[in-house]
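Researcher: Re-running this chain for the archive, since the previous output was lost when a drive failed. Same request as before.
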Amino acid sequence: MPTYDYRCDTNGRVLEVSHRMSEKLSTWGELCARAGVDRGETPAEAPVQRLATGGNVIRSSSQGSGGAPASACSTGTGCPTGFCGLN
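Model: Regenerated structure tokens:
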């Protein structure tokens, strides 16, 4: 199932979730429920936007040896493609 990144402008957070290509989440409450995280103090009706960086299909065969994932981008911002060359 594809994974998508969503951003909430109200709290500045980005969450990654999996869902069907035909689905689209529109509120922080929906996003948190799908991600299985507490929404905190952000109102459930706060709008979220799907980012262009999402839509990756993750298969167990593409996850390597099953060891720890590579470290996050050294810039601390994350890379849109995941291949910034700064790691």
